[in-house]
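Hi R.,

Here's the chain you asked about this morning:
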Amino acid sequence: MPKKLAWPALLIMLACALLLGFSTATAVTYYKTYPVARIVLNGNEVATPDVPAFIIDGRVVVPLRVVAEAMQAEVEWSEGTRTVTITRPDLVPPPAKDKISFSPIQLRGYNPNSTEVSGRVTNNNSNSVHIRFTVNFIEARGPLGHVHVELKSASPGEATEFYALIKENVQAYERIEITIDELEWT
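And the predicted structure, written out as tokens:
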């Protein structure tokens, strides 16, 4: 090959080699036939020594043991029941708000300036609860008034009565909405 053609050919081959090198450096890797995904926990990549996280049908499948242990949880496998049990005693999920039920709200002592509001809160959970909630009285044009109620301790499985005084006459209400403002299980 003449010297004049050797340099351009060498440069073209070098450029192709560099482009191929860069394209393989950013290529997707696969586990079996599935694209591999990375697991990042609090900014740190989690190593997956046996089976990597991978994507199947648009969902990411992760090795549960690796992720749970990276979060300092204990993992147990029961072959008999085919069940994974993850335990981390410092993280106990709180019972759901649906464990609290309210009896119909009663109104007494209508007068131009105030109304007595009463009702019962039932704790359907195994723990005591401290609860703050708001009873809102609403008519077609909007809110008529509201009252805040706080129960320091509602015992498990019991109905706790409450009484409150609202400083408006809410006799014309059409509906009542109860909003749970704070719920702390003890």
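The mean pLDDT is 80.

Let me know if you need anything else.
M.
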